[in-house]
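Figure 2 data, in text form.
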Amino acid sequence: HKLVPQLEEWGASALTLHGRTARQRYTKLADWDYMSECAGRRNRTTPFIGCGDVLSYTEAEEHLQSHGVDSIMVGRGALMKPWLFTEMAERRDWDISANERFDLIRDFTNYGLEHWGADARGVETTRRFLLEWLSFTTRYVPLGLLEQLPPKINWRPTPYIGRSDLETKLGSANAQDWIEITEMLLGKVPEGFTFVPKHKSASYESRAPAAGAAPGA
């Protein structure tokens, strides 16, 4: 917060702050009260952009109204639910269907093939990027299955049965299910194909093991 006036003196045209340290990773929610304090240290009308854990339009509006920021930056929330921007623009929660979500995955696939090509190399490059994205989208829990709104980005989703087989598969934490989703659009994977997401950092609040659960379960 002490740097804010100095950054303005040095000629910054805008200021962006993520309210969490690198050491915290994703286990703690962003500190929007601290971002509010930093925004209040400005001596000029320099735009202040806040970033951290926005997963719903209600959270975005709360931060704009209560934390002194001029705009919101969205990162991980957009990877989990790219229709978040539609929710913001239309000021509504969207209980998007599994088929609508799959249409977005199909669009992503088509863009990949257009960019990298539809030959064998282009298909597998598209598949790799798609799988990395699916490792985020699987964390989304359909709004119609939640008992409390809005959801928080660091809530640990428990396994659930969706309202259709496709919705269940889209919510699976099993990488083999993600691979099968890519096969629905890109064909069978090459023999011996495996996938481990690059993004392995802890993403949820810590919790005690469920009663009766074995350690590490």
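Caption note: The CA atoms of residues 8 and 44 lie 7 Å apart.
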